[in-house]
Amino acid sequence: xxxxxxxxxxxxxxxxxxxxxxxxxxxxxxxxxxxxxxxxxxxxxxxxxxxxxxxxxxxxxxxxxxxxxxxxxxxxxxxxxxxxxxxxxxxxxxxxxxxxxxxxxxxxxxxxxxxxxxxxxxxxxxxxxxxxxxxxxxxxxxxxxxxxxxxxxxxxxxxxxxxxxxxxxxxxxxxxxxxxxxxxxxxxxxxxxxxxxxxxxxxxxxxxxxxxxxxxxxxxxxxxxxxxxxxxxxxxxxxxxxxxxxxxxxxxxxxxxxxxxxxxxxxxxxxxxxxxxxxxxxxxxxxxxxxxxxxxxxxxxxxxxxxxxxxxxxxxxxxxxxxxxxxxxxxxxxxxxxxxxxxxxxxxxxx
Length: 351
Ligand code: 5AD
Known about the structure:
Radius of gyration: 19 Å
Bound molecules: 5'-deoxyadenosine
Number of domains: 1
CATH topology: TIM Barrel
Number of helices: 13
Largest sheet: 8 strands, parallel
Helix content: 25-40%
CATH class: Alpha Beta
């Protein structure tokens, strides 16, 4: 039986498991722990993609600075406040503001935006703005931001270096930056991509053990989706030999969601857009039934959505109108779940 204390070797064995009966056990254990620790309520976070400008050159991501095939945009003050108002009006408790690492968004400007959202709504504010300097992170926390998402993508130092060139010599890696976010008083969210070319089963098992060791508040995982406008998406990163390379499938995604729930039973874990993209019909719902307790519908103004192209084919259902918020509640009801009221902060439980 998989359990919270699993060793890295046991986690790896589960990642390699393909027997349908054994997997049914994995899903059941994850779903039961999810129910016991975070309940049947699903927290809905409105995802507002505030800019697709990016200073970085990550090998996998379509927002990378070198990608000239992407028209760039940045939301205005007014558009951001409208996104927050929409999220609050739909009864969702959190707004997530995400962007590329865009230094056109200044420390002072975003601090003002955060403070204004806090004045006008009761929303929790989550930021996902990349690897910004300490002073920016501190100012945004002081302005009222509650949480920060920064996936570390992989804990394998060699692979990390290949997919994530530093902006400056000697900059801290994302695991180190997550510690800083913690110290600043943010709820901190990490996570990884599943099936990046060069990612081994052993290293993915270590990633999951790190979620446990670092006691992460939020953990987002999803399959790698090749973007032809990036080096990783046009064959420049060599995969490992078969048997060692993690496949970027939805099934592997559910395994990682389930194992993550089992090792971190009280964390907030989303069924991600990438999971919904590799299995459009069922990805989100199976994610929720195999360990996840959060979804992040897109509230970005429609005319920009196509431009926030981390990868092609992104599943962005039309879910901001009232009618669709109702549909979401109905769909959740069909799998025995309810829409959570309130902000959905992490509630720590002894495991
Ligand atoms: N496939 C899947 N996920 C991706 N991300 C970025 N590019 C891709 C891709 N090609 C994920 C990264 C990043 C998050 C915002 O989106 O994990 O941290």
